[in-house]
Amino acid sequence: MIYEYRAYTCFPGRLPALLSRFENVTLGFWEKYGIRQAGFWTTEIGQSNQVLHYLLQWESMAEREQKWGAFQADPEWNAARAASETPEKIVQDIRNEFWKPAAFSSVQ
Questions:
Q1: What are the coiled-coil residue ranges (predicted)?
Q2: What digits encode the pLDDT tens for the residues 53-101?
Q3: Is the pTM of this model over 0.90?
Q4: What domains does the chain contain, in order, with CATH numbers?
Q5: Sign of the CA dihedral 51, 57, 61, 63?
Q6: What does the pLDDT read at residue 107?
Q7: Which of 18, 33, 81, 100 has the greatest number of C-beta atoms within 10 Å?
Q8: For residues 51 and 79, what is the distance between their CA atoms, to the nearest angstrom?
C-alpha cells in the first residue's frame, strides 16, 4: 500500500472555496475514477491555517498513474475546476509526497 500526502496552500481567505470544491465537486470525480481518500485535515494550530492536507490510498504507483491521469484528463473536471476559480484563483501551491508504511506501522 502507498499513501500519497498532498497539501494545498490557498491564497489568503480562499480555503473555504477549496473545501467546498472538494466536498461538492472533487469527491464525485474521485468516486468516478476509484480514487480512495484516507482523510482530510485543516490546520487548527500551526504555521498556516490556509492549508488543506489529505491522504490518498493506492495499491501501487501503477494504479496511481492510471487513475490520477484519467481524473486529471477529464474535461468535465477541468471545466469544474476552472469555474471554481473564477474570478479568483484558489490554490497558491501544491505539495505532494508518497509514503510507504513502516513495517511496525498500525496503518498498512
A1: none
A2: 999 999 999 999 999 999 999 999 999 999 999 899 999 999 999 999 9
A3: yes
A4: 2-99 (3.30.70.100)
A5: negative
A6: 87
A7: 18
A8: 23
